[in-house]
User: What shape does this take?
Amino acid sequence: MTPNIFHFIFGMAPDFGGKPFSLVHYLSIKSAVELNKPDAAYFHYQYEPQGEWWEKAKPLLTLNKIIAPESILGNKLYHVAHKADVVRLQMLRDVGGIYLDLDTISVKPLTGLRQHSFAIGQELKPTYVPKNWRQKLKYKLGLIKNTEGSTGLCNAVLLAEKNSTFVNLWLDEYKSFRSQGRDKYWNEHSVLVPLRLAEQYPQHITKLSPYAFHYPLYDAAGLKLMFEEVTYFSEAYLHHLWESFAWKKYMSLLTEETIRKTDTTYNIIARRFL
Assistant: This one.
């Protein structure tokens, strides 16, 4: 069974990846803590954030200063995202609990999911939309196919008992880690490897619906559903906000005032926790 312990990771680089600790990160922590009332909420960091929203978040957290790993099983970790990928698995192995990316907003408690030894949500592939006349022609001729369905299992939200078999299997797969950043292997160990392991060891994993954590999607239509329109997603325990795609246009611009005054899917959820 997964213990009621939460883990968050931030500050693996001194510039915070150009996304300083902000209102949305605070609301990720506040919503998770308020709804789940964890025994502990650990914040793993190398570089401590600063600012108003960090000061509000700190009382909710147990701080754990770490040194971000430079390699694993003899393979160098080039990108901070991959360092954070490894840290979350190591913390779940050693402590157990629930890991959440800080670009999430919680909707309801995860209590009913803690019965599992390991649980992870599926990630859907957005519908393909041709962007120019060449792509439209290729799509019409069938040269580009719209392959709908799951693209893998997303590591933005993980539930695991301490020393779970699946987490250990996943960590062992880092012996083949080969990404050097945003290359063709970017999401190999964070999304594709757990999918392959799930097929090999189904007895050690619970695969949750993509609608539990990772919907709406990160395409323009999905971000619009979250940040411009008002929609209720009945199956959602929380929403993964896809910061890499949503930061510039939406997340970096959010303020207390806009959340309180403007009705969107995100704002209606978030204002409960201001």
